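SAMPLE LOG
Freezer: B-3
Tube label: C17
Construct: single chain, 176 aa
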Amino acid sequence: MSTTSRLQVKSTAANRFREFSKKNSSHPSETLALMLDFFETNNLSPFETLVPSKVSLEQLIKKRIDAVIAILKNIEKTQTKPGFLLLQLLMEERGINKPQFLEKKKITKDSSGKTPEQMTLEISRLNDEVLAARKDLEYLLSHVEVKESTFGADYLKLNIPRTEFEQFKIILKRKT
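STRUCTURE (predicted):
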């Protein structure tokens, strides 16, 4: 059997320690041994304060992770998907699809009625049209604004004058 010894402790501290031991359903000597083990294994000192406690650090990390998730969702919602959908719609409306380009090139290569100079002129003309279309698209995309709706889904707003929009429509009709 182990021997017991007495410590000189103020009565208020001894009472608090006894209540703490009862609350944790353990013998006071076991409680004291566990407390000492805890301080030694975690390299803690009861004389130093823990500035950022583990709980507060955990809460801070959770808040930051939630903020990052919210930012990523917002980026996906406002930038990636609408931009991709707008590009897709504009390409479909203008009739610019990669397979069509390949088919046109195959058709022009198969037809022997054109000289190489005519082919290079047509290619440069098509490249100019693609560049013009790309500039128009970039201009439109730079003036698209995402509006968040409190009721229902968010929507896109094209921030250009109505006359300019009508001009775009007329130009598109002429090209098709």
